[in-house]
């Protein structure tokens, strides 16, 4: 086979017919794809992609058939089981099937379920992780998901379960007590309930919150607010999903680290937003 990648010195895996590669496309910016994802795009016969995959990325698989399998809350959507079985069917036809999902396929993306179905049907798979919106999307907003002066733990939660409701299995009181920073996926629909649950659990009304919509794309928007004010502020700003919601003091770091604003010529609002003086030299 001719080497599909313009990067010599590494042996790139060959996409064999009849395989499904389950691959993360990152949060939006095509530059956040991994090299394995690019290698996959260059060899795929068919790309089965989700709603949150940027169209430019599909152009990097020029020879491949495109099949849309998007599922967005509230909109008509292909059933999950149908998608998984479609992947099985395509693989059995001897095609190189690239299943491309937003962010990381194993983070709130049902990649695990699809992989399970493929394995149950004896279809060989490869998993290609991606940059998840809850980490990379916040980084594009200038929010480090951990910072030594803020948090030693972070909790990633989903704002709705399979039925579309706030997950009953989540113990908001425990999350609230146990994690200084909470990163919420799919939280927009039920933000009122989520904010109320966190306030009930003892988080301060003034706790900093950031809402990052369409993170890492040209349409990225960031709202800085507080736990008490976030439902009303989201409404007032007219923000729409997809959004990552970050609750915790790491949001304050944006005042120093909003690198996109700085690239536009704005200066940092506060270079020491946590008020801890200069960062220590040692690790
Ligand atoms: N597997 C994905 C998450 C899929 S669930 C990942 O690892 O990122 C879909 C949710 O992810 C959205 O409702 C939103 O909460 C979040 N999300 C994905 N892409 C996003 C983006 N570009 N900006 C903001 N949120 C995003």
Structure, described:
The chain has 283 residues and is of the alpha/beta class. The protein has two domains: 20-131, Cobalt-precorrin-4 Transmethylase, domain 1, CATH 3.40.1010; 134-263, Tetrapyrrole methylase, C-terminal domain (Methyltransferase, Cobalt-precorrin-4 Transmethylase, Domain 2, 2-Layer Sandwich), CATH 3.30.950.10. The protein is built from ten helices and ten strands. It has helices at 35-43, 55-58, 80-92, 111-120, 133-140, 172-178, 191-200, 230-237, 254-257, 259-263, and strands at 20-24, 46-49, 65-68, 97-101, 125-128, 154-158, 181-185, 208-213, 221-226, 243-247. Strands 3-2-4-1-5 form a five-stranded parallel β-sheet, sandwiched between helices. A five-stranded mixed β-sheet has the order 6-7-10-8-9, with helices on both faces. Helix 3 (80-92) packs across helix 4. The model has no long low-confidence stretch (mean pLDDT 92). The chain binds S-adenosyl-L-homocysteine (SAH). S-adenosyl-L-homocysteine is lined by residues 27-28, 52, 101-104, 107-109, 132-133, 137, 185-186, 212-216, 241-244.
Topology as a string of helices (H) and strands (E): EHEHEHEHEHEHEHEEHEHH
Sequence stretches where pLDDT stays below 50 over 5 or more residues: none
Strand content: 15-25%
Q: Mind telling me the C-alpha Rg?
A: 20 Å
Q: How many structurally independent domains?
A: 2
Bound molecules: S-adenosyl-L-homocysteine
CATH class of the largest domain, named: Alpha Beta
Q: What is the mean predicted local confidence, pLDDT?
A: 92
What is the count of helical runs? 10
Relative helix content:
25-40%
Which superfamily, in CATH terms, is the homologous superfamily of the largest domain? Tetrapyrrole methylase, C-terminal domain
Distance between the termini: 46 Å
**From the 3D coordinates, which CATH architecture of the largest domain would you assign?**
2-Layer Sandwich
Q: Major sheet: size, sense and barrel closure?
A: 5 strands, parallel
- Describe the oligomeric state of these chains in a short phrase: single chain
Family: Belongs to the precorrin methyltransferase family.
Domain Tetrapyrrole methylase: 20-228
Protein name: uroporphyrinogen-III C-methyltransferase
Pathway: Porphyrin-containing compound metabolism; siroheme biosynthesis; precorrin-2 from uroporphyrinogen III: step 1/1; Cofactor biosynthesis; adenosylcobalamin biosynthesis; precorrin-2 from uroporphyrinogen III: step 1/1
């Amino acid at each position: 086979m001719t080497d599909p990648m313009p990067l010599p010195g590494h042996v790139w895996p060959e996409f064999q017919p009849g395989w499904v590669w389950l691959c993360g496309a990152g949060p939006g910016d095509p530059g956040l794809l991994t090299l394995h994802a690019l290698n996959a795009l260059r060899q795929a016969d068919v790309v089965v992609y989700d709603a949150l995959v940027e169209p430019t990325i599909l152009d990097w698989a020029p020879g491949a058939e495109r099949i849309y399998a998007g599922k967005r809350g509230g909109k008509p959507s292909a059933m999950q089981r149908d998608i998984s079985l479609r992947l099985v069917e395509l693989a059995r036809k001897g095609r190189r099937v690239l299943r491309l999902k937003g962010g990381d396929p194993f983070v709130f993306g049902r990649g695990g379920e699809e992989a399970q179905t493929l394995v149950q049907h004896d279809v060989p798979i490869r998993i290609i992780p991606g940059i998840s919106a809850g980490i990379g999307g916040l980084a594009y907003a200038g929010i480090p998901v951990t910072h030594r002066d803020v948090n030693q733990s972070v909790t990633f939660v989903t704002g709705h379960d399979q039925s579309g409701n706030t997950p009953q299995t989540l113990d908001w009181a425990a999350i609230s007590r146990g994690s200084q920073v909470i990163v919420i996926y799919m939280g927009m629909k039920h933000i009122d309930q989520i904010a109320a649950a966190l306030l009930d659990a003892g988080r301060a009304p003034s706790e900093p919150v950031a809402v990052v919509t369409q993170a890492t794309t040209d349409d990225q928007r960031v709202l800085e607010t507080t736990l008490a004010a976030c439902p009303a502020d989201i409404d007032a700003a007219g923000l729409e999903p997809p959004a990552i919601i970050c609750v915790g003091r790491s949001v304050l770091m944006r005042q120093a680290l909003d690198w996109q604003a700085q690239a536009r010529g704005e200066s940092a609002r506060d270079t020491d937003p946590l008020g801890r003086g200069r960062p220590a030299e040692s690790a």
